[in-house]
Structure formats: structure tokens, C-alpha cells
Amino acid sequence: MSDKTLIGEVNPTKDKPTSLWVGASSVGSGLAFLTTSCCILPMALVLSGLGGSWLAIFSPIVAASLFILPLALLLVVVAWFVALRRGSGRQTFIWLSTSSVLTLLAVLIFVYQGLLNDYLISLM
Asked: Per-residue pLDDT tens for 101-124?
């Protein structure tokens, strides 16, 4: 028997260290998405009729997005490097792809935040 596995097979001993990085990148991507959507989410909630004074809690989160977004990008890159280096299974690559898309979406929201806010204001 050889030590190599096919892309679709799962090797628990090989994927254990990789799953740590995949989990960290997933959490980082989720946090990056939540912190960058802090200015757009309240407007979307107001447009849907769920507005209120509780939306003020989103303002301190804006400062954190400048630190969380680069950290999430770093975690995703390291997780991809570790997964490719170890030849992880298909499920790992699905999780990493989802995490990468979520991080990319967070970056796009951060970059185009002003345009998105202007568009949502025009809908009011």
C-alpha cells in the first residue's frame, strides 16, 4: 500500500493538522465578512424595516476590520499552503474554497463600501 491518497479520499492522520488551519481560516473569513459588512448591514436592516437604536453597536466594529481583514487573508493563504503541501482531501478543498470566497467578498465590501452605502441610501 502506498502513502499517497487520491484527491477524493480522506486520510485522517494527514488531514488533522490541516483541519486546524482550515478551521482557523473559516473563522477568520467569517469575522472578516462580519466586520466589513458592519456599515452595509445596518442600512439593509433599516430598509427591510428592522431598524432601531440597537444598530449603533456596529460602529466600534469598523476599527477592528482594519486588523481582522489582513489576518483573515493571511490565515486563508497559510491554510491553502498547508493543504496543498500535505495533499489534503476533497472536503478540505471545499472548505478552503468557501472560506476564500467569503474572504474575497469581505475585501470587495471593504473596498466598495462607499458605493454600496450610496446605493442603499438612494433606495430609501
From this structure: 988 888 888 888 888 878 877 877
Provide the H-helix boundaries in 37-89: 40-47, 61-86
Placement of cell 431598524 in the chain: 51
For the chain, the residue count is 124
Residues 84-99 have pLDDT tens digits of 888 777 888 888 888 8
The C-alpha cell at 71 is 489576518
- Residue 56: inside a domain, yes or no? yes
Is the Cβ–Cβ distance between 77 and 21 less than 8 Å?
no
Amino acid identity at 73: L
Q: How many structural domains does the chain have?
A: 1
Domain that holds residue 72: 24-123
Helices (H) and strands (E) in the chain, counts: 5, 0
Cell of 1: 500500500
Inside any domain, residue 57: yes
Contact 8, 89 (CB under 8 A): yes
